[in-house]
Amino acid sequence: MAIRNALLALLAEGPKHGYQLKIEFEAAMGGSWPLNIGQVYTTLQRCARDGLIEPTDATGEDVRQRPYRLTEAGREVLHSWLAAPVDRDPPQRDELAVKLLVVLATSAADPAVVIQAQRTATLERLQQLNHFARDTDPAEDFAWLLVVDHLILQADAEVRWLDLCEQRLARAGPEAVAAAARRAAADVAADPGDGGEEDTVAAADGPDRPQPDAGWSR
Amino acid sequence: MSAAASGLAGRWVRWRVALRLAARDARRHRGRTGLVVTLIAIPVALLAGGATLWATQDVSPAEETVQRFGAADFEVRARDGDVALDWVPGELPDGAQATPLDRGELLLAGELGLVGAESIGVDLGASVHQGRLDLVAGSAPEGEDEVALTPALAHDLDVDLGDVIADPDGEPVGEVVGLAEWPSALPRRTVFAAPDALPETTRAGWVVTAGEADHEAVAAALDPTAGGEAPRGDQPGADTPEAGAPDTGEAAAGDGGAAWRVTARADVVPVTGGGGLAAAFTVVAALALAEAALVAAAAFAVGVRRQLRDLGLLAAVGGRPGDLRRVVLAGGLAAGSVGALLGAAGGIAVVALLEPWLESWLGQRLPDGLTVPVGLVALAAVGGVVAALAAAAAPARTAARLTITEALAARLPPGAPPRRTATAGCALAVLGALLGGGAAWLARPAGGTLDQDPALVVIAVGAVLVVQAAVAVGLYNTLLAPAWQVMVRAICERFPLRTAGLE
Amino acid sequence: MSGAVLELDAVRRVFGTGRGATTALDGVSLSVAAGELVAVMGPSGSGKSTLLTLAGGLDEPTSGRVRVGGADLAALDAEALAGLRCRTVGYVFQDFNLLPTLTAAENVAVPLELDGVGARAGRRQAHEALAGVGLAGLADRFPDALSGGEQQRTAIARACVGPRRLLLADEPTGALDSLAGEQVLAVLRDKADAGLAVVLVTHEARYAAWADRVVFLRDGRAQDQAGPPAGPETLLAGSDVTP
After folding, report:
1. pTM assigned to the model
2. CB-CB contact of B269 with B376 (8 Å)
């Protein structure tokens, strides 16, 4: 979805063909998101099918060579995407959160060890990211810097969450948490109630891995 | 420690750091600084002003003699004040001269009723009287119809030059041709006339100048001839006091009859205010400055509390306990110096402003004008600075004992046990009071004269030191601090402080 | 060990006595060499600030040894400790770092003057130090005319002036926004690269990331250590980044 909307934004400047769009997209992303040209053509085809873009001339050329332009419908979709803030609901499932919660519910491992191990690893990752950020010249690689900042702060947020978990655990005591989880499971077993909610769960492999468009929750 | 940090140069640099910090802090807290400066300035001003006033009104011995004798070398008068002198000068060596003085009493008719005055028959023009009796307006009266008045009498009678004064029956006494004054007794109401010009005056005495003649010869001529017999009645030669005896000494008692005495100018020993006054001065100074130091100490204690974080920071970057102490002491030094200078200057200035009226208040001419006793004023100023330093001493010790972590958290360390300081302070205060009281008692006027006594000065100085020590030990801490500090804080909080603006 | 500027050897610090005693540090050992930036992280109450006050000689350990530049702090008297703070160890606090009545340059020059350096030389060194942290034009401003970040950088300049070898920073970014915090960290990193040993206490992971090593403290004990990292390889080689 993000790629589609980004391409629409690029086309708003004027008609472009696929290869140009790939180059411009990668430049805008500061080199952090190399695109497969096949991906680009697939996306363009889908956009054309949905009536958001149209080829500029109908010569029977190879689809790859044809420059496309934005339709009115496409322009509207683009404007509403730009105007509305990015919606974070429903939230992505986080593998770390799942891991920690399961550990708390089942006492399969010591939560303190899990927390500390993750924290150490994230910090080492942060040290690496920090090196990247320091080596980046804001004048030349502004987009790349923003991306790295984003990663850094996400990692920072993760560490902060781990700190908070630790503090809350210290107050509540892990046995209490496990007992609460067991009670909750017992309640559900006794009274099924409404069948499980329809979550749209994103296939989240972790925050730093490639995320193909199709796997998104929206 | 680096070489630069030790030694005199290093010490001066550290004092400079302390002084700079203290000065900036003083500027920031104008209320508290102003309070301390005022507390020091007021006693110093009173002391400096008092000393200046005393020195100004204190006529020098030489001047006193002139005001007493004029230009004469000897004075002959009846031994019992009011009795007429039945004596005339015999043969005097060549060059010596004797001038008579008559005295009487008069009633005069003035605008507002009868005015009594003394009458003096004297040759006002004679140079021998200059300094003792001065013509200030008009001319000397001659003959029977002319008189001169003291300005005080002229003011009472509401007459001026050219007017005629009369007795209660309306009979004219004489025309006022001149005004003359007694420099040593300006308020005296006197009518002057030529000798023998006024009725009902009696011979009061003679003034004798030796002139070119030998003093010894003249003195011998005025002396009675040797004979061993006490002279009687109106015979010349009654007792003369031994040369060298003070004027107020008792003459050898003669039996019966009018007697005269001869006073030689050279033999008059002038009265000196002397060491007794100085001792009393120091005692008063000590007490006044001790009072100031007690209140100022509370102000410095408040200051140290406010400055705790600054002091902690200073220590954290390398300040030694001595440096912290210096910062507080520097504050005392700065405020004390400013207060002492302002006080001294102010006290002297006030007396200088009042100087034109001093002579009429004292009833005496002050030929020397404004006299500033530099020694006493300097002593008062130094006392002020010492008082400020003493006031800052206990808070300075507290500052030196700060631990950094406590200071940064703005917490004071636990102080010395209060009972110990209180006992020490009380003991010292009692000792100081005894010394001060003893000095004051010893300095009391004994028979009308105040004698210079080095022991008194020593005792008084000791009292100063002891009282200041009592303050420094922290008597204020236990007895007066709570009340004083409430008051000081109330004063200081009326002046808004600049906030330490950390964003 | 011999090259270490700061050495903490099984250091314990207990506050109070008897029943009310709290153990702030319980046997912590740490060694920091010249040119190293070490971050200390941990929840509040973990003893990080205490560790720093002990390292700086502002406080005494209950047991264990603290060595700075090879010298055992316990063997130093009050004067020598003050000299240590003057010439060897620089301290940066979270707030209230500067004397409010002195200008920035005067603040930076204070430790020099306490050490006996003359006024002119001190002022010159202070201006150089301020230029070194990017505050060249602000030397004559008073602290209340400086922003939070500028104040912290001035404090760092003061903590580095003279022959200092160890810099201790206690949450220096606590009151700063992200950009100002980054500038402060960049300065600390520069100082470390220039040869100082720097110990940074922080609870923010992204600032700890500037360090060569991150030490975790919990309940007064050193738990773990992150880094030094293997090196800045190409982080994103062959993978796409989540938008």
Report:
1. 0.69
2. no
